[in-house]
Specification:
With 406 residues, this protein is an alpha/beta fold. The protein has 2 domains: 118 residues, Urease, subunit C, domain 1, CATH 2.30.40.10; 275 residues, TIM Barrel (Alpha-Beta Barrel). The protein has an 8-stranded parallel sheet with strand order 5-6-7-8-9-10-11-12. Strands 3-2-1-4-13-14-15 form a 7-stranded mixed sheet, with no helix packed on it. Strand 8, helix 7 and strand 9 form a beta-alpha-beta unit. The chain is globular, with a radius of gyration of 21 Å. The structure holds zinc ion. Zinc ion binds next to loops.
């Protein structure tokens, strides 16, 4: 197995808490000059096969077969985007344009995408999915989760999961995105379908089960029934919780030991306390608030309470059509009270926690060699230079994938 050293790294983000005092769960985190990022200056990373085998100061790096000069730039773990909806067809340009222009718009929201997705061929759906994955990879995302939820029939939901599973291990069954239009008058019948025949068809293709727990989607009792049924089939829960209003989603996520409660925009003190006392990660999705001109989630409040926070894109054609984790980092720093270091941690190690993974989101021996070189000396530039394509090169599983070798 050949080995490669990436050396001459100005700032290396390891996310190894032992390298710096403080931890992401510390309430003083970020305020005393301490970083959660386990930073190493003048650093090197050694890769063997698909794994990191060594990190440290460049001058101490062991001999290797190959050498890459990072040119005094920053290196960090590939982004872990733990929340996206990439199996869909069509787009919702008109809906976005109307919303941003202050004009009324009465089309069907998610239902518009459901109609287009059902009408698409497998090849069309997969081509769309791979296009967005390539786009995300160019922006540094090396691990991603994605969901069904635009089929809402047994056949269309299981098809979406089969297609997603060709591209990632982190596949989520979201048959409970909204009540399928055919069941508009019989939501209980739809819950019975999701927990019965649809779950039977979908469980073999997914790792996770998710519910949109919100007024107009599924209430707390329905969400509990769906997540509990999924868990009985070996799927682990995650929840779309407290996005548009206060509600039971976060408490339910904690009760069921969900890996993640996603959105967390409208939280009571009891919700924050519940998260702080649990393993459930609060996944914040600022692309959604940006694209709907909604109130920002308060990341500072969560971090100060000791909650583990992840940052993800929520990439979907309706409410957050961005695949850019760097963009979400910039928003989180500018508008959600996160320090640049906290935001970078949340988009890497935080995303890994939200997927209950310890083999990604860090650059320490044993982790996958998923990393990116920034065209900047420090990861702070991700927020300092918003909108600038700073990702210069990406390695995934020990191979350079962006720009592709010629
Ligand atoms: Zn979502």
């Amino acid at each position: 197995m050949s080995s490669t050293v990436i050396s001459n790294i100005a700032t290396l983000v390891t996310n190894d808490p032992s390298l710096e005092p403080g931890s992401p769960r510390s309430s003083k985190f970020g305020s005393g000059g301490r970083s959660p990022l386990g930073l190493v200056r003048d650093a090197a990373v050694v890769i063997e096969g698909d794994r990191v085998v060594w990190t440290g100061e460049s001058s101490k790096a062991p001999a290797t077969d190959n050498r890459v000069d990072a040119g005094g730039r920053a290196v960090l773990p590939g982004f872990v985007d733990s929340h996206s909806h990439l199996v869909f067809a069509g787009d919702r340009t008109e809906e976005f344009n109307a919303r941003m222009s202050g004009r009324p718009y009465s089309a069907g929201g998610i239902r518009t995408t459901v109609t287009a997705t059902r009408a698409a061929t497998d090849a069309e759906l997969e081509a769309n999915l791979t296009r967005f994955l390539a786009e995300a990879l160019r922006q540094g995302t090396t691990t991603f989760e994605t969901k069904s939820g635009y089929g809402l029939t047994t056949e269309d939901e299981s098809r979406a999961l089969r297609l997603a599973a060709r591209h990632t291990d982190e596949v989520t069954f979201l048959g409970a995105h909204i009540v399928a239009p055919e069941y508009a008058e019989d939501p209980a019948g739809y819950v019975a379908l999701v927990t019965g025949e649809m779950l039977d068809a979908c469980a073999p293709h997914a790792r996770w089960i998710d519910v949109f727990c919100e007024k107009g989607a599924f209430d707390g009792d329905q969400a509990r029934a769906i997540l509990t049924a999924g868990r009985a089939r070996g799927l682990h829960p995650r929840v779309h919780a407290n996005q548009l209003s206060y509600g039971p989603g976060v408490q339910l996520a904690v009760e069921l030991d969900a890996a993640s409660a996603d959105h967390c925009t409208h939280l009571t003190d009891a919700d924050v306390d519940a998260l702080a006392g649990s393993r459930t990660v609060a996944t914040l999705l600022p692309g959604a608030e940006f694209s709907t001109r909604a109130e920002w989630p308060d990341a500072r409040r969560l971090l100060d309470a000791g909650v583990t926070v992840a940052l993800s894109t929520d990439c979907n054609p309706g409410s957050s059509f961005t695949s850019s984790v760097p963009f979400c980092i910039a928003l989180a720093v500018r508008d959600m009270g996160m320090t640049p270091d906290e935001a970078v941690w949340s988009a890497t190690a935080g995303g890994a926690r939200a997927l209950r993974r310890d083999d990604v989101g860090r650059l320490t021996p044993g982790a996958y060699a998923d990393l990116l070189i920034l065209d900047a000396p420090s990861p702070v530039h991700l927020a300092y230079r918003p909108g600038v394509p700073l990702v210069r090169a990406v390695w995934r599983r020990g191979r350079r994938v962006e720009p592709r070798p010629v």
